[in-house]
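Lab notebook, bench 4. We co-purified these components, and the gel suggests they stay together. Before we commit to crystallization screens, I want a quick structural picture of the whole thing.
Request: model the full complex, all chains together.
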Amino acid sequence: MSEDDFYTPTDIDMLRMENELLAFEVRFLKTRLGRSGRGLGISTPLSRISYLAEAKGDLVLLLRRLGSSPLGPVFRLSREYRVLENRYLYSPEPQGPPNSPYQISHLQGAERDLVLLLRRLGRPPLNLIFGRRRSFRTLQDRYLSEEDGTSSNEQRNGR
Amino acid sequence: MGRVPTSNETAGSAIVYAGRFADRVAEAGLPGGYAVLSEWEVLPAKLVADIEGATALVVLDPFSFPFEIMTGEQWGVPLIVVLPAGFDVEFLIAVFGEVVFGRLTLFDRVATADKGTWEVLRRRYGWAGSQRVALESDAPDDAAAEIGALLEAENATPAPLVDGAPRGAGPEKAIHLAEKAVLEPQFADAWGDRADDVAFDVLEVGAGTGRWAASFDLARTRFFGVDIDGNLVAAARANVLGASFERLGPDLILPYQNESFDLVFSVTVMHHHPTPAKKTLLSEMWRVARPGGRLLFLEEFVSGRSEEAVYPMSVNVFVALLLEATNEQVVLEHMESLRYPREDLTRGGVIAVSRLGVPEKW
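Here is the predicted assembly.
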């Protein structure tokens, strides 16, 4: 019988149609759930992205402070310091959404560089100068305080 | 004093709540022998049970009626509210606006002899003209007699006034409320975040008597409706102020320009038509929707719920037809199944899609 013809569906027909309807709804809900998960960058929690962006901001401020201090020319004698300045002060910001893999990779690199820089500045003889500054100690607390490598700030941000 | 009916007595019959006027109404007598309740006979649990089995609820004394006990099930019963006489319309709105007036549907009615008050309330709440019961007298006993006679006449010859549903058909109102619960969020979603001064153009295909126009703020919406039944179009024009209704010809070509509407929707229309007609309707609905606009369908995908002739289609068949009719230029925005009250099967489904493409005119 053509589907254009009127007929009275049997119970089996009706059950099949109901099954199709509910299955269609389930497929839609699964798709929507997956789409919204990707949109939120579900592989990297937002709290982690926020923490990384904060670390990068602190690194930029620290580099500016160091570069404008009387010791700036001395720091620039180091190739590693010049690389950091070029990477975070003079290079254009990477484009794209904050939760894109490229952005997250960039921020993770900034966090690593900040930790290395703080460790370097915290060793003698530079620690005699910077260790007296409260803002420097705050950065050390924030990013170096945990012996296991997980800072208190990271823990606060849910990492 | 009126008598307290049992739930069995009220099943399949109307309940008249006379409140403080129960003595006068009982003395006058009601045609049909409807159960009359006084203000002392409305224990909430019992009243709730009685209302659920009734075909209609007539409230002669709204000041003393416990509307707060009404929940979803009870609101599914068609309501006739007699407006208290001698009160300022703003006072009535302050007392009953949120509790009663704002919840009335096309299946409910308001009885009053005061045409001025009716007009003010009608415009404010978007009521249809057919929702008024024009009383000869404001006296409660006279009002009860008039309404009783009206119900008797409707029982004798059911008038299909609401999209083919007879007046007093309780389940039809409950079905309407179930549909409303899933449709109105989609209407709001189609409205989106547009500014108030940007017109929202809406077309309903198979508009019937225009019952869904009340779901839109017609001050900010240009509502259009089409139907193949000329009598329903005439009824819709009389019912709904501030909307435009046209008769749809047998060719099913919508009498509108391309890309004219932000929302084009139909409610339980497609299963009335064979496949070629469905395809024409879907294609036409897509044509008149603006790119980025919304197409919304509430259909029965598990045959029909009544004995009327239908052309059943499963959701998969419908979606395939939709994609074919629109050349796949749509994207699925929402899908939701719907189980009607007192039904075992989940029959209904809401499908919302957006039209893809670039506007012909910028």
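Chain A is about 70% helix and 0% strand. Worth comparing against the SEC data before the next meeting. Residues 36-43, 147-159 of chain A have pLDDT under 50 and may be disordered.
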